Amino acid sequence: MSQIFSSADTTAWGLADPPHASGKVNPYFLDLDRLLARVEGATTPYQVLGVEPDVLREPIDRAFREIVTMLYPPYPISATLPAEMLARIERAFDKVVPAFALLACFARRRDYDTTRSAAAATAPSPNPPQPSPQAISINQPALPRAAHVESAKSVANNNRRRTDRLKMAIPVRVIGVDRPGDEKWREMAETLDVSRTGLRLRLNRPVHYGMVLYLSLPLPTKLRSHGFADNGYNVYALVRRIEPLKKGIRIIGLEFIGEHPPAGYLDKPWGTFRTKRWAGNERRRASRLDRAEAVRIEYISAAMPSTIREEAMTENVSRTGLRLIVRAAPPEFDLLRITSAARHFEGLAILRNRFQGKDGLERLCLQFLNKEWPI
Asked: Per-residue pLDDT for 237 more than 90?
């Protein structure tokens, strides 16, 4: 674990109007209220998800997705919900995730069903016998569970990744704050892959490098660093990678921070944070050379009406990318065009990281897409 130091179409829902438009209650509002009432009154994970005890895995997944879709509609719809309803939604989500995590895991579900059957078989009779005065109750203490500890020095191969990734689609609730004065935003997403140190997911909401997000997901126990006995897993994560926008969705790479936020987050949750330098194996595809060269860059974005250009200076270069010192980089953009007249080079690049140097100037770490830099 690193240490921190520093639209959907509303017509698809049948909700073109707010829940109380024209004095009528929207059908979605009624369905949501019924769902919340069921979850609130549920006493078993099967009741929470609305499935039978003998159900197979696929209906469990489907039920969970349908519930999450109902709880978190697109923003134009959720914006019309009253505050008390939003609070009920959050409480329901905190109850639905553990239920799904238990029923989706064969071993946990088996243990739960066994315990439940045993409890039903040994239920007390209407007139239970009184214990004798000599009876002694003994509580068997639970054995402590060992946590996985990973050391970078133990990695003996040339794998560039800190830990192996597992392709796994897990529903995850993402919470973040964009800027001062903003309310927290929430979005339901699904992971593309996960590991002990982070995950990748698709996200509609724009985020920026160094942003801290709060995640809630039913992560497998073997991939956790805390909360081993909990059904759900809550963890703070740092935005480390942002892929170019495709069909309105970005792929985001997140690095886990831990169960507690970094220093300064509670005072400035919209701030930018950085991790300490990786001390393990060299992870770059090509070695970098410290070299200062003048280049011209163009920031390309579908959201900007015109292209922003500026002159910049390289700080280091490699065949596959470079680091630039810039002054006028916009907050959000999709691609960059790098031009060097001295080297007769012009190519497209994607942003891999950005941070502010000790001199107060911003650095952009870039990876080339279609060409290699002439070394």
From this structure: yes
Locate the DSSP E strands across 182-331. 185-194, 198-203, 212-217, 233-242, 250-258, 289-290, 294-300, 308-317, 321-326
The count of structural domains within the chain is 3
pLDDT at 16 over 50: no
Alpha carbon distance, N-terminus to C-terminus of the chain: 35
Structural domain that includes position 324: 289-368
Q: What's the pLDDT score for residue 127?
A: 57
Q: Give CB contacts under 8 A, 24+ apart, made by 349-353.
A: 349/321, 349/322, 350/243, 350/244, 351/209, 351/242, 352/241, 352/321, 353/209, 353/240, 353/241
Q: Once rounded to an integer, what is the mean pLDDT over residues 260-276?
A: 86
pLDDT for residue 2: 46
- Which residue is associated with the tokens 């609070």? 87
* Domain at 77, CATH number: 1.10.287.110
* Residue 337, domain CATH: 2.40.10.220
Do 338 and 295 touch, CB atoms closer than 8 A?
A: yes
